[in-house]
Model the fold of this input.
Amino acid sequence: MLYLCMMVMGREGFGRLATMVTLAGLLGHSLAIVLRWIESYELGMGHAPLSNLYESLIFFAWSLILLYLVIEWRTRNRTLGVFAAPLAFLAMAYASSPSISSHIQPLVPALKSNWLIAHVITCFFGYAAFGLAFGLSLMYLLKIREKPQASSVFIRIIPESSILDDLNYQMVVIGFLMLTLGIITGSVWAHSAWGSYWSWDP
Done:
């Protein structure tokens, strides 16, 4: 909401506040992940919080915001937050829905592998990069359709299309590399767990 207020009203103060709130949220989110990891050891399960749908959604939201803040820091532009923050919010909202269990559960034998951690981390950083590429693509389309005589504050503060194109390319490359690593680590994990690198499962 704060990022949207910044773009609609053109006030940088909203942007600075949005960045501070987002950074505080990321720090709190990071602490929550660490505490959940510690709790799993206290319960005698002892595994990284990356083993079920709830934990995967939480980690996706975390990685999305982390990548976004890196982009914001590099470009000194906050407009992508209008797309990144809602995506993270939707992931967190879905994770909080009653249909998804948030309980820490013991791992089945096949999941007791360090390859699982590598697989999930690389895959979800890839998904996060592609999510940001989606937001950058929308901004690019808005920018190239800008009419100088009728452009709004919302459009004017979006970076130039060449910058958006370059950032989008970087995110796609990062996403491709991370997802490739995710597929490789997943295959190695599958081989160690089930004796087959690829079983054509979803």
Q: What stands out?
A: Residues 133 and 168 are 5 Å apart (CA to CA). The mean pLDDT is 83. The chain has one domain: 2-101+108-194.
